User: What shape does this take?
Amino acid sequence: MNRPDVSVVMPVFNEGALVERTVSDVLSALSGETSFEIILVDDGSRDDTWHHICALSQQHPSVKGLRFTRNFGHQAALRAGLAHAAGRCAITMDADGEHPPASLPAFIAQWRNGAKVVQGLRADAAHLSFFKRITSKGFYRIFSWLAQTELRPGAADFRLLDRDVVDLLIAHPDASGFLRGFIPWAGYSTTFVEFAQGRRAAGVSRFTTGKMIGLARQGIIGFSVKPLRISMVVGLVTCLFALVNLVYALVMKLTSPDSLVPGWATLTGLIALLGGVQLVVLGILGEYIAVLFQTVRNQPTFIVEETKGFDPPA
Ligand code: UDP
Ligand code: MG
Assistant: This one.
């Protein structure tokens, strides 16, 4: 196969207003490269994104498009793009201009120097909302502790992967539901490129709070069994507490039977507490069973409906 040096993979969801501009910035950033491709993955957009992608592909033979049947989410779009990338390395980035195309040569230079992974690090962006900064920081801390895989603050999905790493990801679709965790976990030699997060030129973030929580949950459940262990500890502590309570009640009953006031409040409180703990533990168990179920069911993580600009199969 005739491999280009670099594949740029970009998930695009309802970014019809931005995609042409971002692609033209990427094209000028890559003007020093002789062989590259840009893969735009339309994650089930409901606006004219696909129309723009087709036009771009018509204009520039290096631009290729994939269109999902529906919205499968950012991580699935990244995976699909990587699965279709032919390059000796692949760079994933956002289509909204927040990942500055001008940094691309720095990524490529570090890869040529031998790095298998070049991770973009977002310099603390003052214009990001307080909520986004605080939740992102908190999550990275919790994740690093739970999964025992260090997530560098500001390390998002702007990164370069060598062919070896891309092949590994393709071979293990389940492990890669949360690329931010999988890549550092895999342990390849990594260097970092700091970048100043650009501003979205139009539209609003497509990452709703629901999608953010979903990603965080997927990351933790997919990478750590600690929540199961913690629920066991919580269960054990609760049992111990109940036992001590029982012994105390028995001793009181035997030594001074009249001192025991019927304690309805304590009783109902304890029942509620125990019920709550049990439900939480069941919920955590359920999350893991859900992951098992999805893995066993082996359902595709995305479905491509149409492609544009790729060579027809030989
Ligand atoms: N995106 C996607 N599918 C989604 C949500 C987002 O492909 O369901 C894309 C989006 O078009 C953009 C990137 O993922 O290229 C990051 O999304 P966004 O800028 O909305 O998130 P934020 O930068 O606010 O985290
Ligand atoms: Mg963005």
Observations:
- Strands lie at 6-12, 36-42, 63-68, 89-92, 117-123, 155-162, 190-196, 304-308.
- The first strand starts at residue 6 and ends at 12.
